[in-house]
Amino acid sequence: MSEIPGNNDDLLALTKDISMRDFHQPFLHNCRYNSRLRSVGGRYLLTTHDIEINLRYALRVGVDGLIDTIKHELCHYHLHLAGRGYRHRDKDFQWLLQRVNGIRYADREALPPRCYRYEYKCQSCGAKYLRKNRIDLKKFVCGKCRGKLRLVADSGPQS
User: Fold this and answer.
1) What is the pLDDT of residues 74-117, one digit of tens each?
2) 25 by DSSP, 3-state: which?
């Protein structure tokens, strides 16, 4: 397969294939693209046992990156259903991920950059804070030294 699956049915078929080939267990739930995911390559939903994949991320990393992301989410899936440690910090998860040659984290370069509109700087220690939304400078102080914050850059909406 040289290009990423174009629809959810093809993605589900690829996920089932990877599950049987690398985990020797069937994948019995749903796998789909979720265009609303922003900061992750994919996610495993604990309540429904479904897997969601970030479509924009998959387009940027290609088939190999998509397969690695699916392996990562399948590690969560199979360990959770088996009642073993399925979280990133658990030894069971780390061992299984290494065994199937999955990736630990999504490639940050392939994820869309976060856009910050406001930059604040502490007047005492010089620490910088990037924020998407404005903050009330009367209520918030520096988290390191408790000094006053000052708005340095404002690239917010122009009226």
Assistant:
1) 999 999 999 999 999 999 999 999 999 988 887 777 776 777 88
2) coil
* Amino acid type, 78: H
User: By the 8 A CB rule, do 65 and 110 touch?
Assistant: yes
Tell which residue, 148, 131, 130, has the closest CA to residue 139. Answer: 148
How far is Cα 3 from Cα 91, in angstroms, rounded to an integer? Answer: 33
CA torsion angle 104 22 81 50 (round to 10): 70
Nearest to 91 by CA among 5, 129, 99: 99
What is the arrangement of strands in the sheet containing 149-154, beginning at the earlier edge strand?
128-131, 118-122, 149-154
Helices (H), the chain: 8-18, 55-82, 91-99
Residues designated as active site: 73
The token pair at 142 is 């520096």
